[in-house]
């Protein structure tokens, strides 16, 4: 598509439930990134996919967080047993060869 | 690994005044540098980037940034700001070896009339 698409745009979930966030990158972009932005804070790197290479998971905050990507297309970020501190905007970005990252509008996750 | 320091969390400035948002980075490899802008209730947008060549890069709305390798800085400047420039500005760096984009904590620019 023309841009990076994320869904849902907003998600309210109860503490302890699992959530799944989706990212559709720009067609042809080999790299895909997930970031988290807590209220009033900067962007926190979570995970990075580059083509068929093993993903860089160094930013995932706990084993409750996981992400998958099918080839060079859609990615899903899964948070299991959500906690209130997981509340944040989750941003996805894609790029071609690391030059010029395009961000989606994000998913605002609220854990109540 | 790379890191980014944005020295000012908030910068208040009057309309039509000049502004500089400071950014310093550290890296053991050559870098690409970026400034992103986030307007209230909107997503991140790329403002400008330095990849190679001229160390002075410009955006279409009057911002410019200069890559200074010796000072490891990439400060963002605008000679005359508008109310509409009110936003949060993020400096970011990635290594030329193609790894992840690392962001600073952001600087909120508040333009007052």
Characterize the structure shown.
Chain A is mainly beta. Chain A has strands spanning 5-7, 10-13, 19-24, 31-37, 43-50, 65-69, 75-79, 88-96, 99-103, 107-111. Chain A has one domain (5-105): Immunoglobulin-like (Sandwich), CATH 2.60.40. Chain A is globular. The N and C termini of chain A lie far apart (33 Å). With 113 residues, chain B is mainly beta. Chain B contains no helices and 12 strands. In chain B, the strands form 3 sheets. In chain B, strands 2, 5, 6, 10, 11 and 12 form a 6-stranded mixed β-sheet that branches. Chain B has a 4-stranded antiparallel β-sheet with strand order 3-9-8-7, with no helix packed on it. In chain B, strands 1-4 form a two-stranded antiparallel ribbon. In chain B, a hairpin with a 5-residue loop joins strand 7 (56-58) and strand 8. The mean pLDDT of chain B is 92. Classes of the chains: A mainly beta (112), B mainly beta (113). Chain A binds chain B through residues 31, 33, 35, 41-43, 45, 48, 50, 56, 59, 91, 93, 97-106, and chain B through 32, 34, 36, 42-46, 49, 51, 90, 92, 94, 98-106.
What's the CATH H-level superfamily name of chain A?
A: Immunoglobulins
User: Number of DSSP helices of chain B?
Assistant: 0
Class computed from helices, strands and strand pairing of chain A: mainly beta
Total number of beta strands of chain A: 10
